[in-house]
## 1
Amino acid sequence: MGLLTNLKDSVSRVTDRLFASEDPKRIGIYGPPNAGKTTLANRIARDWTGDAIGPESHVPHETRRARRKEGVDIERNGQSVTIDIVDTPGVATKVDYKEFLDHDIEKDDAIRRSREATEGVAEAMHWLREDVDGVIYVLDSTTDPFTQVNTMLIGIIESRDLPVLIFANKIDLDQADIDRVADAFPEHETVPLSALEGDNMDEVYDKIAEYFA
Amino acid sequence: MEGLRSMEKIRMILDGVRDGNIVILEEGLSPDEESKLIEVTMTEISPDDFTGIEIETYPREEASDQSLLDRLMGRESTETLTVIGPANQIETLHKDDQLISALVSRK
Ligand SMILES: Nc1nc2c(ncn2[C@@H]2O[C@H](COP(=O)(O)OP(=O)(O)OP(=O)(O)O)[C@@H](O)[C@H]2O)c(=O)[nH]1
Ligand SMILES: [Mg+2]
C-alpha cells in the first residue's frame, strides 16, 4: 500500500514537474543580521507546509548555518509555484564576539557563536555566487538602508542577473520608513510587510509567485 | 586567470588591512570580488586578533547613481574610490568627512 501511494505521489510529482517544466527554484533569503529573515522564512514555511525553519531572536547572528525548506508549494490564482527556501545568516563584513557579551552570553559561547557566524556568512556568500536562483532581500525598514553591505550585496545579486525582491520588513513598527527602502533601491520592486505580524502577506506571496515562477 | 588575479587582489587588501593599514583602491572592486572579499574576510576573523573589515566607497565625481548599464560596462570603476580598513578604526574615520577627503586626496 505504501508502495502504491508512493507511486501515486511520484506520478503526480512527475506531472507537476511537467507542468512546472523545471525543478523548484532555490530562493535565498538574504539581508543584514536581525532584519527578520528567519521570521519570514518561518512564516512562509508555516503558511504552506505547516512547519518552521529555525529559531528567531533579537540577538544578531542567530542564524549561523543556512537552513533550507524544500518543495514549498505556494498557490496563487489557481497556479502553484514550488520553491526551495534557504534562510541564510545575516551578512556582515565584521563579527566581533564581544558584541554577543552584551546579550548575556558567556565568553566561550560568544566566541563559538562568532566562529559559527563567520563560517555561515562565508558559506552564504559562496552560495550566492553558485547556487541560488533568486533572492529575497530582507531589510528592517526602521533602519537606514544605505549601508555598504546592502549596496554590495544588491550589486552582487544584480551582477549575477538573479531575480530579486526587496522586502521592507517590520512595518508594524512606528519608525518604519518604507519609502526610504524603496528609494534606496529604485530599480527593484520593494514589498512592505511585517513578517512578525503577518501584515501584507498576500502581496508577498503574489510577488513571490510572479518573480520566481 | 581572471579568478587568480582577483584572489591576489583580495589577498593584498586583507594583508594590508590586517597590518593595520587603510587600503584605498582607485579601481574599486567588481561585485564578484566584493563577494569573495566578504567570504575570505569571514574565514580569517578570529577572536581578539581580527574582527573583520569596514568598507566604504566614495563617488569621485558628483556622479549620480550608477545605472545597471554602467555597472555592466564596468564604468563604475573610474568613478569611485573604495576605502577598506580594519573593522573598528574606519568607523571613527568615516564620521569625519574631512579626514576622509584628506586621506583620499593624499592618494
Ligand atoms: N516588530 C517586528 N519585529 C520583527 C519582525 N520580523 C522580525 N522581527 C524581530 O526581529 C528580530 C530578528 O528576527 P530574525 O528573524 O531572527 O532575524 P534574522 O534576519 O533571521 O537575523 P539573523 O539570523 O541574526 O541574521 C526578532 O526579535 C524578531 O522577532 C517584524 O515584522 N516586526
Ligand atoms: Mg536568522
## 2
Amino acid sequence: MLKMHNIRKSYRTDTIETHALRDFSLEVNEGEFVSVTGPSGSGKTTFLNIAGLLETPTGGEYLLDGQEVGNLSDRERSRMRNEKIGFIFQGFNLIPDLNLFDNIDVPLRYRGFNGKERRRRIERALEQVGLSARAKHLPAQLSGGQQQRVAIARALAGEPRFLLADEPTGNLDSLMARQVMELLEFINEWGTTIVMVTHDPDLARRAQRNIQIVDGQVSDLRQSIAQQEIATA
Amino acid sequence: MIGYYISLALRSLRGTPILSALMIAAIAVGVGASMTVLTVNYMTSKNPLVDKDDQLYAVQLDGWDPNEAYNRGAKGNQMPWQLTYRDATALLRSDIPKRQVAMHKFGFTVSVDDAEVRPFVAVTRVTTRDFFALFDAPFQYGGTWEKSADESPKQVVVLSQATNEKLFGDKNSVGEVIQLNGEAFTVIGVLKEWNPSPKVYDLNNGHFQDSEELYIPFGLHRKFEIHSWGNNNGWNSDIAKGLTGYEAHLHSESVWIQYWVELENGAQKREYEEFLANHIRQQKEQGRFQRPLKFALSRPSEWLVMNEVLDHDSRVLAWCALAFLLVCVVNAIALLLAKFLRKAPEAGVRRALGASRQSIFVQHLMESSCIGVLGGIAGIGLALLGLTGVRVLAGGGFDRVAHMDWAMVFAAIGLAIVASLLAGLYPAWRISQTNPSIYLKTQ
Ligand SMILES: Nc1ncnc2c1ncn2[C@@H]1O[C@H](COP(=O)(O)OP(=O)(O)OP(=O)(O)O)[C@@H](O)[C@H]1O
Ligand SMILES: [Mg+2]
C-alpha cells in the first residue's frame, strides 16, 4: 500500500537546516493498522505529511498504491489525496463556519459527486459516527470527542483506502479517546489501512504493528517499546 | 463547482459583514466616481451622425473682416461658423449636393382653438425641406414640405413628437391648423421622438440642447421678418446701398444661417468645392470676400472637435477618476489579503481534503468577483446619484448628457468585476501557494 525508501526531508531556515527525516524507509501493507510513536520533534508529523502528499520529500522514493508519486503535478497529487487518503488531525480541523453536513461535504465536492450521491454518503458517514441528529450543528456546538468523530466521518465519506491520523486522541480525555480508538478499529476491520501517530502507549499497543521514529529514522520497535515501558514504569 | 464557490463566497462575506461592507464600499466608491465622469465623457463624445460621417459636411465661407480673421472658438478654423443670408440663398441654387440644408433657430407663440391648451412659446427651426432626410429625423405622420416652400411663403409646419402630444394627444394631426403668432399654419408632418445629442446640427447655443418643437419652411423669412433666435455675428455695420429695415438685414454681412450639405462621394465633393471657390471668386468681383479665398467642408466628427464638444478637461477628469478607482482597488487588495490570510487554516484543511492549488485560487477569485458584482451594483447607484448631482449643479444644460444608458450600466458592472478580479488576483494567489501542513498541526 505504502512504500518509502530512503526518504529525506530537511527544512532550511535562514541559519539552520533541520533534518526532519533521514534515510527513512518503511512499508505498510494493505489492511494494516500501524501505530507510530516517538519523542516530540522526531519527525512523526513530517512522515504523515509526506505519506499524505501534503509535503514533498527532499529525496528518496515513495510509492503509494504502487505508484511513484515523486513527479506528480499538484493537481494529480490533490486528486490522489482526495480519492485515496483520509486525514484525521489532533486539532480536528473542522471548518468553523460550516455545519457538520457541509464539513463532510467538502472532500465530496472536490471529488465531483452529484448532490444525491453526496447526501447519501454524508448521511451514512454521520450515522457511522453516531451524529446523524446533529447534521445542522456548527462544530463549536459539539464536544471535542464529537468533533473528532465528525472529522473521522469527513475522512470516511470518500471511502479512502488509507487513513492517516496524527494524534487523533491527543486532545481528548481517556473515555473519549477509547471511543475514537474503537471507531478506528472498526473502520480498519472493514479493510481501511490506518497509520496512526500517538503518544499513548496503550493505544499504540492495540494496533497490529507499532513503529517508533527516533531522530527522523525508524528505530527497532521491540526494543523501543521495551525502553518505553521501563521509562513509564 | 462554480456554484459551490459562489455559495462559499456569499457565506464568507456574511461571516465578516463589516469587512465585506468595507471592501464593497471601496469598489463601489471607485466605480461610482469613475462612472459618473466616464458617463458624462462618453455621452458628450458621442457623434449621433456617425453613420453619415463621410457624407455630411458643414459649410463655412470666409467672408469676414479683411483686417481681422474670425477668432471665436479656440479650436475653430478662423472662419465664421455660420453664413450670411445672401450666401446661403446663393448656395441653395446649386444642384450638386444630394441634399442641402440652410437653417437657423427661431421661436413662435403657439395657440390652438382648444381652450384646454394654453398658448406657449415653441422653439422653432426655420429650414429648407431636406433637413429631415439629411439628419435622419424620422416621421411618424406625414412628411416634409415641397421645394417651392423654401423660396416662397407657405404656411405649413412639422411638429415634434412632444409638441404633437401636447397639442393633439399624439393622434395623427396632419391637416390640422395651428396658430403661430396668430397666423394659421397647417400641420403637414409629425416627427417621431428625435433628439440627437450632442446637437451636432446646431452647436451655437449649447451643445446638448433639445431639438426644436416646430419646423417651418425657409421661404417664410420676408413674410414674417424672421430674425435668428440663435447667434448672430457681424463685422460690417455699413448698410447695403439703398436698403432699409428687414431687407437690409437680409443683405448685410451678418452671419446667422447654418449650412449643411450631403455629398455622396469624393467626385461630388470635389465638384462642390469647385462650386464654392467659384462663388467666392464671383463675390470678390462684387467687392465682397476681401480676405484670401477660403472655405471649409467639415464632417460631423470634425465639427464636434472644432466646436469643443469633446472637451479636454473632461478627459483629464476621466483619467483622474480612473486613478481614483486604482486607489480604491489597492485598498481592496489590502483588505482582501487580510481577510484571505485569516482564512488560511481553512484553505489548509481544504488542501488536505483534496483541493488543488488551482481550486483554492479559483474559490478565492470567485469571492472577490462577488465583491465586484455587489460593488458594481452599489457603484451604479452612486454613479446615478453623482449624475443627479451633475444635473443639479449644471442647472439644465446637462440634462441630456448626465444619464446612463445600458451600455454604461454594463460598463460599470464590467469595470467593477475587472477591478475586483485585479484586486483579488494577488491575495488569491498568495493563499493558494501557502503550505497546508503548517496550518494543520494544531488549532
Ligand atoms: N515547517 C517547518 N519548518 C522548519 N522546521 C520544521 C517544520 N516542520 C517541522 N520542522 C522540524 O522538523 C522536526 C520534526 O518535526 P515534526 O513535526 O515531524 O515532529 P513530531 O514528531 O510530529 O513532533 P510532535 O510529537 O511534537 O508532534 C522538528 O525538529 C521540527 O522543528
Ligand atoms: Mg506531530
